[in-house]
Amino acid sequence: MSRGFESHTLRFLPVRTRVSQTSRTGARGRKTVARHGRLRSPHPFASLMKMLGIVAAVVLVSGLGVSAYAYYDLTTSFASEAVELEGQGSVPPDIGAIEGGVNLLLVGTDECEPEYAYLFGDRCTGPDAEGQLNDVNMLLHISDNPRRVTVISFPRDLMVSIPSCTREDGSETGGSSYEQINSAWNYGGLNCVVKTVSQLSGMNIPFAAKVSFGNVIDITDAIGGVDVCIGNGGMRDRYTGIDWAAGPRNVQGVEALQFLRTRYGLENGSDLARISNQQQYMSSLARKLVSEEVLTNPSTLLRLATTVVDNVTPSQSLTNPVTMVQIARAVQGVPFEEMVFVRYPVFDDPSNPNRVVPDEAAAEQLWAALEANQPLQLTSDPNLSGGVITADPAPTDAPAEGEPTEPTEPVEPTEGAAPVEPSPTETAAVLPDSIQGQTAAQETCSAGNLSG
After folding, report:
1. pLDDT one-digit tens code per residue, 230-241
2. The CATH number of 3-20+41-76+95-219+270-359 is which of 2.40.10, 3.40.630, 3.40.190, 3.40.1170?
């Protein structure tokens, strides 16, 4: 086992040769985004369930941390009034945040699950019934102090080089120099997906977890749904069964799946626009998970923790509960402005309009900023993504003229948590506008489309 799996301190690997069309397309300027993979769906729910791993992986980003923290919080509360017995041994010290940074790959797979077969259309029959695709690939990066959180989503249509891998039965696969990233699972399961993303990013990834589709309804219901916003007059998508009016909407269960799966209900209708719309969901989910509605409700926490744990297949490096608590402690207190969701930058594949290829020059700027632990400054306009539009900020009640304002009390740091102390001399890394994204602090609405 490599040293990267033994140490929690991040190491950036030497970047290998990557698939790129930068030299062929980089000088062409902004291009209209292709509508990748607009294939006829044989059944509305088959199309809907195709990307259900999106929800599971999204929940995993924050859900694992919340679940671990729930475990920690409940056990420490239980011990707070404990009685010390004469002659008892010493009690282990409080668990602090993990040292160094963390890279954790979150993989959502498209597979047949008999329990949910009635929703899949023909997904559980035919020659593809036994196959699996890693349709969702999200790299969660937690920096060293000062702590920041970045989630990088890799489009499923991204063409990459897949390295040689070892399957569970011990057989070797030769890899591929030019393959769609969502086929990496077939070359060697979770380990091969990790190797593929590590090769693409140049980052050591010591932690990983896989989730399938079936837990989505239970997880969204466990937290009482997620609040999203529908813009542009409404959203209609005949493939996912959406016909929603404009305005705020709490999505739970099947509706959450519909929201995260929709493409044709969005202005642009592309897979890339869908990622932008999913980032709206992730941002709202992050705010929901740290709200009093969740964190101060023991029954909700236990329900969420149980649901997540029952539906996650972790790497061996994640099976230690202490490690999970340490990771959760590392993100505790990170402000929403420092939680950034970005889409890996791409160009259209000139040989296939339904595929995309890496924009290596833009990606290198992102990886360099993460390695240097710089704050990320997004320059992309969400309104140009085709997936979301910016929401009008909620009005705030300003104090009347001459009315004294109450002094703000200092916030006491949580014992054991890593302090968030940004340096006053930090320089933000200005990312190119080809890197679409938003922070958890930003509120956006779906760029709805009524002709989908």
Report:
1. 999 999 998 888
2. 3.40.630
